[in-house]
Amino acid sequence: MRFVPAAGPIPPPVVPLELLPASPAYPLLQVERSGPLSLVQDAGRLLAGRFGLVRGGFVNVQAAQIANRLLGNALDSPLLELYLGGPSCVALRDCTLAVSGLGPQARPNGLPALPWSSFRARAGQRLDFRASGPGRVSYLAFAGGLDTARFWGSASTDLRGGIGRALRAGDMLGAAPARQPLPGRRFTPVLRPGASFRLLPMSGGDAQVLAALCHSVWTVGDGDRMGLRLLGPALPGGETLSEGSPVGTVQVPPGGQPIILLHDKGTLGGYSKPACVHPGDLWRLADLRAGEKIRFRLGG
After folding, report:
1. Tens-place pLDDT, residues 233-259
2. In the prediction, which pLDDT does 191 show?
3. 196-298: CATH, from 3.30.428.10, 3.40.50.450, 2.60.40.3080, 2.40.100.10
4. 171: number of CA atoms within 13 Å, CB side?
5. N or C: which end of the chain has fewer CB within 10 A?
């Protein structure tokens, strides 16, 4: 194989596919400040991995579905996923919104709204979010679902794939249909965050590595929607044949520090994979912060 200089000008960078409409049919909020990271998400872009697209979707499915349920929406309706902080917006008309999750909490007109609840925002009122919850992620839902286009059947943002983008100042957010459900609905979560996660063995995994995972205390390192890096004793790992890996897979690269793959993981993974986090515990991974201590145990 040989490389030769390309002829002609260098092609410009790919412009992300815009999903949010510039002028929604039923505008509700004007964004004045975007916040650390605010993304449009729904249930995810299924059956698209063969094209190199990530699944995406809600990282905390339970919290996202509760936000939609508080407004009578379909469980997979598009909404905003907020990380650590949130946007600062002005209501363009009276509307009913809902916020759920353990991350940033809503403050309509400077007053804290009840967590895990629907509330009324009045025209001209400011809506801010403060990082006052014990976790990282919360969801802001709109009655009828957020007005957004879809690609491959999903409105989920894929930052690395150039599908959608993070919220920014100047965006106008609207609802798909014009609906005014009654505010004041509240959910009291029975699921609590915790430091213990169940593991399921993966085919071909090393039983000794699985035992070491369960017998050690791990510190959460850096992380994003692709995955969480864990710090602790170095485990035997390394490269293997690349293959598909489900969300929650614990892979061990050559450095020996495990990585838990999350919703924006790559289509294929070529590192040792001794275990996978139980699907019932995936929602709690999204709210882990750097420096927290966690443990694993075998469980079905």
Report:
1. 999 988 888 888 899 999 999 999 999
2. 58
3. 2.40.100.10
4. 26
5. N
Quote the pTM value. 0.92
At 52 the pLDDT is 84
12 or 272: which leads in pLDDT? 272
pLDDT on residue 272: 92
Q: What is the C-alpha to C-alpha distance for residues 275 and 264, in angstroms, rounded to an integer? A: 19
- CA geometry: angle 140, 105, 292, nearest 5 deg: 110
pLDDT-derived band at 194 (thresholds 50, 70, 90) equals low
Q: Is 102 exposed, middle or buried (0-12, 13-18, 19+ CB in 10 A)?
A: buried
What's the chain's length in residues?
Answer: 300
CATH 2.40.100.10 in the chain: give the residue spans. 196-298
Q: Does the structure show a pLDDT above 80 at 192? A: no
Concatenating the DSSP letter of every residue in 127-138 gives: EEEE--SSSSEE
Cα-to-chain-centroid distance, residue 21: 21
Query: Which tokens go with 174?
Result: 């609207």
pLDDT confidence tier of residue 31, bands split at 50, 70 and 90: very high
